[in-house]
Amino acid sequence: MSYSLNQKQAELLQECLSMTHELGLHADADRRFLDLEETLLDKAATTEVLETLWKEVLAARRAALYWQQISDVERSMTEKLADNHFQLQQNYLRLMQEQ
Question: What top-level branch of life does the organism fall under (predicted)?
Fold first, then answer.
């Protein structure tokens, strides 16, 4: 029993995977994946495995995007904190010079 995809199916799967990099394209990627599943109607085992893996890919991409956003927020807060700290140091030095 062979579980390989033909060239068109492989290209469609690659297109779906590349669309998962952007959260806004996940719905489109799901629709394209359904198109891929339709080409595999005669291969139930392949369809089941691909569907399971697809759900895992989407969950992993969403988690990665979530943590990237958290990281970006943390970086922004750290930069602002560093700027505020520098400003406080400058204000303290000016205050000490005035006394």
Answer: Bacteria
Give the Cβ contact number of residue 44 at 10 Å: 9
Tens digits of residue pLDDT in 41-97? 777 888 888 899 999 999 999 999 999 999 999 999 999 999 999 999 999 999 999
The domain limits of the chain are 7-70
- For 2: left if phi > 0, alpha if psi spans -120 to 50, otherwise beta; the answer is beta
Whole-angstrom distance, CA of residue 67 vs CA of residue 24: 16
Residue 7 CA to residue 39 CA, distance in Å, equals 12
pTM: 0.68
DSSP string computed for 47-71: HHHHHHHHHHHHHHHHHHHHHHHHH
